[in-house]
Amino acid sequence: MTALWKSDVTVPAGTPFEPGRRHDVIILGAGLTGLATALELVRSGMDVAIVERGGIGELASGSNTGKISLLQGTTLSSLRRHHPASLVRAYLDANRDGFEWITRAADELGVSTTTRTAYTHAQGAEGVAAVTEEYRAAREAGLDVRLAGADELAASPVHMASAVALDDQRAIDPMSLLAALATAFVAAGGRLHLGTAVSRVRVVPRPRVDTEAGPLFAGKIVLATGAPITDRGLYFAKVSGMRSACVSFDLEGEVPDGMYLSADSPTRSVRTATAADGAGPERSPQLIVGGAGHPVGRTDSELAKLDELIAWARDTFPVGAETHRWSAQDYTSHNLVPFIGSMPRSLGRVRFATGYAKWGLTNAPAAALRIASELRGEKMRERPTWMTVIGTRLTVPADLARGVSENAKVGAVAAQGWTAALARSTPVAQPAEGEGTVAQHHARPVGVSTVDGQTRAVSAICPHMGGVLEWNDLECTWDCPLHASRFTPDGERIEGPASAGLRRLR
């Protein structure tokens, strides 16, 4: 499970950790949000440190499809159904600034991109209305989209009953960009601490980050971790975690230059990667197909969903050998707009960003621009209008309804998980390679799995809110169906709102 982008990239090694050191700003997370924010601040003369549990681009930032686009499926029409036109325009303006930032950064740092046309298309008749609605919402918001003509639809490598198109978008190798940002950050004097897990964030008496290597102190802290790792503001209950998968293949036919995303289900994402934007100089053009989306921990088999995606790709395109497969996780806010700004109950000392809904390549730099503006102390009137509009949006009845619905699902899933776990007692048969099962031991759920020939047992209770974990048979992880925390077979925390790992039983 290695992304195409991670197969041949060289990333900086990081800088020595100095326990007890104080910085102007400490940023948790070395994805696009963290790196873009850090580069903005260090170039403003601030002393900035990044602390990352794993490596650069460890999670979503290094495992997406590399599409930089303002046409984002049916995002704008979904927003418009529940929010005023002014908020939709503000969202678009934020992403436009994010688009411009990331393309400028790529040009400055020598990261190649290719110019593409992005399409949101209908696979069948049921998607035609969605395409039309997205076209109208985009035009209302000021995006220069067009409806694809009959000749364009007929020439498409994917079946398109109709499509809205946006020219002059970009495709990129996201890991090459992240590596370049990290290198530029260190060269500007930033401190980059990789492989350093954070156990706690404190606000009083002064901002502090506790890590396995010792504490660090700061004037301000930025949480760029996908899901905030502190429960201040209860954002774990205001976003939903979704996983999706990608597969890359050697392409044996014509190389299509568009970027395609379906408006109807099942969602299919298609683009090519060439030597100019990510396939690598020694590699033939690649076809990247994405889909298999599902709420974290709430599907019978992640592997079966990926197999379905692969079968569709082979039936649809002239592809050869599969080269890479990977998955990623992102969060969608219940009000459909990313959360960016000051963390509640943090005395203004903690900033965070989450809820990009799989469009982080434009939302992440937009979040970085806003957070950096606030931390530099720029006056409100000096900031773009979208920062104020998004920061002061009101909660509308539809937001509340979505939140109530999602949290009702969480409650139902929690009850089902405990019921299923308690119905099966240990000992259980040793799982086959790559498989895992949950049973109860002394009325407590236990997860038993076999990976790389080793059988392990861990507590199957998520340390965040007590949800019973589910086995992910594609990635061999324990996933929480409540709020999307994830853990290795050994119980080590991977991501999500949980701040601790699982208790190892054997």
From TrEMBL:
Pfam families given in the database record: DAO, Rieske
Domain (Rieske) ranges: 425-506
PANTHER family (UniProt xref): RIESKE 2FE-2S IRON-SULFUR PROTEIN YHFW-RELATED, SARCOSINE DEHYDROGENASE-RELATED
Keywords tagged on the record: 2Fe-2S, Iron, Iron-sulfur, Metal-binding
InterPro entries per record: FAD-dep_OxRdtase, FAD/NAD-bd_sf, Rieske_2Fe-2S, Rieske_2Fe-2S_sf
Signal sequence bounds: none
Organism: Microbacterium plantarum
UniProt name for this protein: FAD-dependent oxidoreductase
Region of interest (Disordered), ranges: 275-294
